[in-house]
Structure formats: structure tokens, C-alpha cells
Write a sequence for this structure.
């Protein structure tokens, strides 16, 4: 028995060591794909720094953060035009540190259901009067429910949709992120709803969903004309990470996410691009970026030029974000996806485990923004506030 316990301890310690130096989420297909693409870019790159400099910079990151900086490849920091100082280099937070040390220190698992299930999020936000898209109905445990949790029939839903003026509806998995599994239906001239992939919203489609998982069905929104002018094909949202410590709320960082290539969603993981948004002025950065670190001075489809453009209603978005975050004190850090309509901002989604990479790429690192002065602190106090 003692030998078995020792073996288990050795195995457990090895897993901890391995996780320190290898990518987190290694079994996540999306992260595997991102890392594969990054390493492919690295191998094909003809404009890399010399090998000794690359090795030295990786060691600088490892020594400071005490985990492997595979973001060095994800963010193309090895390129010759990325001539940055060591202080600028360590401003990028490694993925392992962000997901396994920093966020868990501030996050309590007992509140995770608020963000992890869109139906629960919707119910809580309705009670808190936090504006969000109009919810039409839920699919929960194989049954259909109104937002007031009154059970409905397929005939009632089809009748309601046949007599509404809503132009677009979104069918979203209750538990999901990154835009995966979303179906977007448009109202046709014949009066029914159909996706661009020719899926028709009818009783058969509903029956299929009811056998699958839980869903939330919401009406599409009409975004602000200024935002639509950048790219009209998707709802272009602002990803904002807000901090709430002892009731004091601040916006830490913000980017604007924009669809492209006829995509109806703006998620970077689904091919969208993103651009830094100055948290004080709402001014956009000079260029947008993709997950593959492509840079765009103008939108590739609409040719909208990003340089010197300021979101005219940014103060409204910023005020809304702070007010909304103040109503959800269960989390220190939340990622808010905010859309702007003619009637004001509203929340599309929140995330208690917000991806920081689009923020890091756009802002040249986030360590200073999050006030991480001593990285050892989170190693010594893992999950202290959980």
C-alpha cells in the first residue's frame, strides 16, 4: 500500500510539472488546432529572429512565469519585426498561468452555473434588468419553455413565429462558447425561417433539438449603423473584461470583434478578426488581427479603414459595462460580449473563463493591466479565494 501511495504521489507531481511546461487545454481540439497552425507558421516563416535569440527569449519567459510560454509561437513573437524588450516580453501572460493560476485564484466554482448555462444567465439577467436580446423560448430537458418557464408546444411556437415580424433568430446551445453550434435563421419571403445552409425551422428541426441538448432561442438584433458600417454581415461585439473588487468596478481591457468572409458571427475562433479598443476614448487600433496573426489595416471585405476611427458611443458602452458588472459581484473578472443597438448596449454573452489571447495580441500583453507584479504570488496561493 505504501508503495502504491508513493507511485501515485510521483505520478501526481509529474502531472503538475508537465502542466507547468506544456500547453494547457492540450486535449481541446480548438487549442490543438491553434497550436498546430502556430507551429506551422513558425516552420514556414522566413523572417525569424536568430535561433539563439529565440531560445533566450523563451527562457526569459519561462524564468519569469515558471511555465512554458507557448504563446510565444501563437503570437508570432519570434518574428524579426517583433523587436521587444524583456520587460515587454514578460508582459504577455502564458495560457497556463492565466487559466490555471490567475483566474482560479479569483473565481468561485459555486457560482459557475451563472455563466456556464445560457438559460440560467438569461433568467438572472432578466431579474437584474440587464438588457440582452429578446428571448423567444428555451429547450430544456427535451421540453419547450417560455422565458417565464411556462411549458409550450411545438404548435404554439410555430404559430408565434409565423405571426412575428422578427427577421432573424439565433438558436444557441445553452452550454457552449466560441460561436460553436449556433444556428442562425432568416425569415424568407415565404414566411418561414431558414438558414443559409437551407435548414428550415419547423417541427422536425425542433424535435431534433429536443433529443439533443438544451438550447436558448433569441431574436436577432439591429446593431448601431456605425458598427454595421464596419461589417454588416454579423453582430460585431465588444469583448470587455471587467474587474469587480469589493464593489469597485473597472474595465481592464477591450477589443472589438468583427466578422468577415460572409460569416454571421464575429468570434475569432470562427474566422473573425479583432482590434484593440482604447478603454478611455473608444478609439480603435491601427489594424485588426486574426487568430493566425494576420494584420489588416482595413476590413478585408468592406475596406473600412480602422486607423483614427473612434466609436462615437463608447462612453455609453463603457458606462453600461460598468453598471452591468456591478450587478454581478459573484465574479472578480468576467468577459462581457456587448453589442450596440440604436436603443443602447446589451449583453450577448458573459464568460467567467474569458480567453485572453485576443486581448493580449491586441494590447501587447496584459500583465501590467491586471497588476501582476509578483507572478510567484499565484503559484504560492493557488485558488486561495475559491
Amino acid at each position: 500500500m505504501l508503495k502504491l501511495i508513493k507511485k501515485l504521489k510521483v505520478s501526481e507531481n509529474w502531472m503538475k510539472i508537465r502542466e507547468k511546461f506544456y500547453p494547457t487545454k492540450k486535449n481541446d481540439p480548438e487549442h490543438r488546432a491553434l497550436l498546430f497552425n502556430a507551429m506551422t507558421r513558425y516552420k514556414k516563416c522566413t523572417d525569424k529572429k536568430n535561433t539563439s535569440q529565440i531560445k533566450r527569449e523563451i527562457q526569459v519567459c519561462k524564468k519569469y512565469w515558471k511555465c512554458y510560454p507557448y504563446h510565444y509561437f501563437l503570437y508570432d513573437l519570434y518574428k524579426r519585426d517583433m523587436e521587444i524588450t524583456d520587460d515587454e516580453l514578460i508582459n504577455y501572460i502564458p495560457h497556463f498561468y492565466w487559466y490555471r493560476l490567475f483566474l482560479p485564484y479569483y473565481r468561485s466554482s459555486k457560482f459557475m452555473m451563472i455563466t456556464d448555462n445560457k438559460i440560467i444567465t438569461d433568467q438572472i439577467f432578466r431579474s437584474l434588468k440587464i438588457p440582452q436580446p429578446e428571448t423567444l423560448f428555451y429547450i430544456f430537458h427535451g421540453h419547450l419553455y417560455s422565458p417565464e418557464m411556462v411549458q409550450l408546444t411545438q404548435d404554439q411556437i410555430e404559430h408565434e413565429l409565423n405571426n412575428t415580424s422578427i427577421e432573424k433568430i439565433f438558436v444557441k446551445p445553452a452550454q457552449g462558447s466560441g460561436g460553436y453550434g449556433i444556428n442562425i435563421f432568416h425569415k424568407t419571403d415565404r414566411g418561414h425561417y431558414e438558414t443559409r445552409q437551407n435548414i428550415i425551422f419547423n417541427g422536425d428541426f425542433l424535435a431534433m433539438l429536443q433529443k439533443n441538448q438544451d438550447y436558448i432561442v433569441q431574436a436577432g438584433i439591429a446593431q448601431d449603423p456605425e458598427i454595421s458600417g464596419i461589417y454588416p454581415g454579423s453582430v460585431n461585439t465588444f469583448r470587455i473584461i471587467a474587474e469587480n473588487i469589493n464593489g469597485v468596478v473597472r474595465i481592464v481591457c477591450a477589443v472589438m470583434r468583427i466578422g468577415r468572409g460572409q460569416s454571421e458571427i464575429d468570434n475569432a475562433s470562427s474566422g473573425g478578426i479583432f482590434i484593440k479598443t482604447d478603454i478611455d476614448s473608444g478609439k480603435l487600433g491601427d489594424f485588426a488581427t486574426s487568430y493566425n496573426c494576420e494584420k489588416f489595416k482595413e476590413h478585408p471585405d468592406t475596406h473600412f479603414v480602422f486607423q483614427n476611427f473612434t466609436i462615437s458611443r463608447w462612453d455609453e458602452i463603457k458606462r453600461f459595462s460598468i453598471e452591468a458588472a456591478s450587478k454581478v459581484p459573484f465574479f472578480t473578472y468576467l468577459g462581457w460580449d456587448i453589442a450596440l443597438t440604436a436603443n443602447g448596449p446589451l449583453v450577448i454573452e458573459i464568460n467567467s473563463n474569458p480567453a485572453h489571447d485576443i486581448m493580449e495580441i491586441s494590447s501587447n500583453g496584459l500583465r501590467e493591466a491586471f497588476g501582476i507584479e509578483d507572478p510567484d504570488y499565484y503559484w504560492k496561493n493557488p485558488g486561495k479565494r475559491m
Remarks:
- Residues 134-219 form one domain.
- The chain has three domains: 2-102, 109-122+224-363, 134-219.
- The two ends are 32 Å apart (CA to CA).
- Residues 2-21 form the longest helix (20 residues).
